[in-house]
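Inputs:
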Amino acid sequence: MVKVGIVGATGYAGAELVRLLMGHSEVQIVWYGSKSYVGQDFASIYMNARGFTGEECKADDLDKMAEECDVIFTATPQGYLGSVLNEDILSRTKIIDLSADFRLTDVSTYEKWYGIEHKSPQLINRAVYGLCELYREKIRGRDLVANPGCYTTCSILTAYPMVAEGLIDPDTLIIDAASGTSGAGRGAKVQNLYCEVNESMKPYGVTNHRHTPEIEQELSLAAGRDIMVNFTPHLAPMNRGILATEYATLNLRNGSYPTMEDVQAAYEKYYGDEFFIRLLPKGQMPETRWVEGSNFVDIGYLIDERTHRLIMVGAIDNLVKGAAGQALQNMNILFGLDEKTGLTGMPVFP
Amino acid sequence: MVKVGIVGATGYAGAELVRLLMGHSEVQIVWYGSKSYVGQDFASIYMNARGFTGEECKADDLDKMAEECDVIFTATPQGYLGSVLNEDILSRTKIIDLSADFRLTDVSTYEKWYGIEHKSPQLINRAVYGLCELYREKIRGRDLVANPGCYTTCSILTAYPMVAEGLIDPDTLIIDAASGTSGAGRGAKVQNLYCEVNESMKPYGVTNHRHTPEIEQELSLAAGRDIMVNFTPHLAPMNRGILATEYATLNLRNGSYPTMEDVQAAYEKYYGDEFFIRLLPKGQMPETRWVEGSNFVDIGYLIDERTHRLIMVGAIDNLVKGAAGQALQNMNILFGLDEKTGLTGMPVFP
Amino acid sequence: MVKVGIVGATGYAGAELVRLLMGHSEVQIVWYGSKSYVGQDFASIYMNARGFTGEECKADDLDKMAEECDVIFTATPQGYLGSVLNEDILSRTKIIDLSADFRLTDVSTYEKWYGIEHKSPQLINRAVYGLCELYREKIRGRDLVANPGCYTTCSILTAYPMVAEGLIDPDTLIIDAASGTSGAGRGAKVQNLYCEVNESMKPYGVTNHRHTPEIEQELSLAAGRDIMVNFTPHLAPMNRGILATEYATLNLRNGSYPTMEDVQAAYEKYYGDEFFIRLLPKGQMPETRWVEGSNFVDIGYLIDERTHRLIMVGAIDNLVKGAAGQALQNMNILFGLDEKTGLTGMPVFP
Amino acid sequence: MVKVGIVGATGYAGAELVRLLMGHSEVQIVWYGSKSYVGQDFASIYMNARGFTGEECKADDLDKMAEECDVIFTATPQGYLGSVLNEDILSRTKIIDLSADFRLTDVSTYEKWYGIEHKSPQLINRAVYGLCELYREKIRGRDLVANPGCYTTCSILTAYPMVAEGLIDPDTLIIDAASGTSGAGRGAKVQNLYCEVNESMKPYGVTNHRHTPEIEQELSLAAGRDIMVNFTPHLAPMNRGILATEYATLNLRNGSYPTMEDVQAAYEKYYGDEFFIRLLPKGQMPETRWVEGSNFVDIGYLIDERTHRLIMVGAIDNLVKGAAGQALQNMNILFGLDEKTGLTGMPVFP
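Outputs:
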């Protein structure tokens, strides 16, 4: 049994990790870390866990956790892990970080977009970017995984094959996305109150959302050169789900534009064997309801023959493939388990 | 492997059965029955099933299904099973009926409340009422299970120990309940459109909802005499969940009223060992969010010392414990499997 | 023009007052009071007000406001008005209090249920309980109006004629109600976050909600003796609306129970001429969507011939008839204006 | 008093017209037209209208309505008005058409995108496109107004000044929009059921939504040449509201890109005096909650200095400015009334 600790178990992503780990046959949670609820039963905070665990929340103590845990998930705000991590800890345990601290390989990009100093830049190269479908071979055997962001997972996977295969011009890429409100976390803020969110759509982080450089980093790798995109997130009145609608101009090749068959072939090439990526039949578009509660990424696409643009749409559950589910998938890879273990539940609808 | 057929697989309860069966290690679905979608892929109707099944929907043909299935779930409107069931079919397969056709032991009560003739009254006694926590011993070895209604499961289980132990006066019992909209089914009706349901609460079936006689039948058995209750359902703007708030006057016994400890002891006596019933700590009240997606029944209670009434509150997921989950629990009992198989997922929150 | 000041203009009830006052032809808002947003434009907090007002929020200063305002609405937590009000202020302005401070005529009841000391009990008798349909004659000419609570307005008006006419036994009265989340206010609390409220129903304040004694006070007056009721509120996943479902046993009179015609006649007697009370046709039940944004109270009723209980259902918009709308109606009465001024907008649906 | 008839009064747009007309001092509704509810009280279908009208729904009979009505609103599916309108009717009454029949000046474009034959192409030139803020001078004195679509109103107004002033390259314009579900109408369709829409975001009409040519027609007029755009609508789980997020590359002019001040100046030039268009302060973005129930268009914008794109965001209430409100605004213009009459209610929040 893999002994698991969670820093930030009482946030939405942490609690989703608990839910998924409860359905995983090879793990045992030995540390429910929390800042706000130390000493309280986890199941008294998240009452869905009643009957599954009687454990109390403990303070976040990475050093002590490294003693007791084979793997630690850090579901914390940015800055935390960077400020406490060191080589000694990594020599004793593995860490899967759900925050942004080790996602960006360029420390100045991190410090510019996040507005904070990176306290352990020397460890950035030790981390691997945990986008499983793209990097699973690199993830094996590592001890520090930077679990991708929610919007980024959806945005990158949806566009990656098109950029990598040169079907679209990456400089024209525009990503317009909407997320359920669990992505905003469980902090007590007026803007996230029921009556403020319900019955409304709003954009936020326009031109400066922090997931932008993460998307650019990965798609630049796909393109083989530095690219920049526009990414605009919106808050949607629902609990879970991310939908990313992405637009890019098709590349003219030998005098003609790529066809739907070309696009399909490229997606199949990259994702044809992926369990968690479901390529939809031609012309069908994803909807977040079909992935709710699951680790799936649904992808659809259409060419606009009039404007020679490709419209790609991806859908995920932000708490699963966008956070806890992918973290678990990474854990499975790290420990040589079947990558799907604990993640085969059918999406919940309605 | 138990071979399973579903009549009405493309309704909400039927599709939830599919979801739960996909997580059950001992079954195989061999017949996706549907009236409206014959010949179409099940996963093209419920796209959450994409990647889980490539089967087509077939017409509902109970006779033929009896050949191929060890058990058939009928998730159909009332009247269907009564009109097609016979002894021959029951000699070849087992049936778990999610409709109301075999729930009421008194045929005239059925015909009065449902307004239709019962076409196979001779089979009523062959059926067992599948409220697992109360009747599991009677269910074993049977071939026809009447799976209880959603409101009734919640309403009966919440009040049963109080009535059976004589702590409350059952003639004063008032049950006020709210349900998510999946309980209204997937039929295309104006009243169930998003804009009609959203941002509104409404009562319906006031004084005449068909779950009333079912509640009365079971609580009369608990009381040892015929009782009548008031039951008022409400439609709530949410997908899933039933909350039943129940009021009854405490019985004065030897000059004093039952205490919270008496109430707790009675609940513990009946449900202390039940996995799927979670008795909440003193003073805590259930909320439907904590049971969503699961087979749990959460029960809380408080005595009003001023009015000498007991307020009992129960919460379930109407599609799981109120329909598909309990049906699966009944299947597990019928086939001698662990009653919890396929039903141990933690509730999904948020 | 009536000069109006609002203490607590940036809460939900206060902001709804602003919305309604903007549609009132005879008033001018001269003081937008706020505790949290002093110095900020009101329209930068509630951006729906952009284009309607450019005024800044000012600190709550009842003494100074009394100089400038013909009437002050206090939309504040309980305890505030009681602690600052005095005769001098009342000699200079009129006050309509949306808090509970002057609703209960018995100071000890107030202190017991609210758990705070009443700081100006000598003024309680100066106040009039502002349930307009019942007390409009008493309200005229007064300077201190205790605007009723949201649940109480709905609960009392729905049951009042039945109790006053002796059609039901008030000791059997059970009130089960649900409210939209705006009733919980705009404070930044985890329990009111979108993801905590959405997709869930929950009871709260079971046996001890503070609106209970207010309901009992008024229905005791109707009954001519002290009565006690059970009142259970629930939080519903919607912005606005209160639905109260009320149960009581019919009184046997001369050997027979009241009929639907008797019930209808009693309702007509009390409310037949009331613009804001809409008695629904026989057998129809209210739904909160039909009153949203308006000052209406919709009332429906049905007799259960089996149990001899009457089920009465009332629906209001908690922010309008349950708070700001009724406050405005009271203002109209105080200033001799047409009671409906500013309140004749049709409910907004969907 | 202007005598008003409504064809399709029992659809969502028609019923919203009724609501707004009830608050208009100069009109009287004399014909509630309906296909499905002839002979039933309008207020029994839309119970929010109880107390406002006791009129029955009548069949849609344009000829007879022309006798009795000074103006007729047609809130019908496309194809209806085109098939029944003629010069004789227009000689007797004015028509404001909320359908698409007379919006497109090119009949072949209409027939291609809508897939139906236009039955009265000779009347297309008689119609004026009723986007009030752009064309109010042309609207005066006309007898046939093509009321713009919901998405189009929001999309066009948001981009118009930028295109007209040459600040952006219109060939790069991408419009990503989300709408509340009332935009889908009141037809009984499975896809619009509460449980299908709730907790989900989905794109639809990708590359082929019928509002595309309408947007292109108007923005081509602004650009002075034919342009094409990408327009992708999404269904959002809310009743009302449209949010359009629009992207375009800034035009390099004399070696530099337009600044935020340039953008602001252009918006001010076109909309600075418009009551119904609220230009938000620099950097602020619209949210649909702030316009709900009103005729406002809120517009915000930001330049991405990295990609030299302008992101423009517009928000409207799809049933008001996107349908009934703009129709009423057009009526006010046609009859020489103050354009704001009946439309000055503050948006309803929450």
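Remarks. The CA atoms of residues 24 and 257 of chain C lie 46 Å apart. The mean pLDDT of chain C is 97.
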